[in-house]
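Task: sequence design from structure.
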């Protein structure tokens, strides 16, 4: 069974942070993920859902899709880490895109732009960014690699319901998609997939010390 893993980086990382924070009873958590082995861990767990002997697993690599903010030092450091370490790990394929600045919010009454925080004592500029194209690259690769018969089953690390049409189509070709999810979130996508499993059940393997 040839299994490839596809992960929406920020969807996966931020949801895991939230779940672990709630589980540990803290306001926030930043889980250090074992990215080097994550793909193989998720692929192995999917064998249980697919009723496949783990010895029959042929791991086809992990495809990660992410973005960075070029306007911040943290964002630039993240890009360097992705390009110089993450993308160089065996079996790891990473697509990283620059986040774009979002247009300013507007007051629903006067329709003027809200460019600074309106709360007393703050007044700081409001600068927000958004991902553009990251989900598109994930869906494109899921379809492209599936249609070129590069995998028999795919593990999808995302909660995004927008991916449902792509999952429906690729499964109509005889491939199977298993969601690596965080129930009860992502139920719509999980329902369309062949099966799903809770990533929190693998936390001891996924989290680095």
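Answer:
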């Amino acid at each position: 069974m040839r299994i490839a893993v596809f992960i929406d980086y920020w969807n996966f990382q931020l949801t895991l942070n939230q779940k672990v924070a709630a589980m540990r009873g803290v306001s926030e958590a930043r889980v250090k993920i074992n990215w080097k082995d994550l793909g193989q861990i998720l692929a192995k767990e999917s064998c249980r859902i697919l009723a496949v002997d783990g010895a029959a697993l042929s791991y086809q690599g992990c495809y990660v899709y992410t973005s960075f903010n070029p306007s911040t030092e943290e964002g630039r450091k993240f890009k360097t880490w992705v390009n110089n370490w993450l993308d160089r790990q065996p079996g790891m394929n990473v697509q990283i895109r620059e986040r774009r600045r979002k247009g300013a919010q507007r007051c629903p009454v006067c329709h003027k732009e809200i460019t600074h925080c309106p709360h007393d004592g703050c007044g700081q500029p409001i600068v927000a960014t958004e991902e553009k194209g990251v989900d598109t690259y994930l869906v494109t690769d899921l379809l492209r690699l599936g249609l070129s018969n590069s995998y028999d089953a795919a593990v999808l690390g995302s909660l995004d319901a927008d991916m449902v049409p792509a999952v429906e189509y690729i499964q109509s070709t005889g491939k199977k998609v298993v969601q690596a999810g965080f129930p009860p979130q992502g139920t719509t996508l999980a329902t369309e997939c062949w099966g799903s499993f809770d990533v929190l059940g693998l936390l001891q393997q996924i989290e680095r010390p």
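Residues 2-99+132-206 form a domain with the Rossmann fold fold (CATH 3.40.50.1010).
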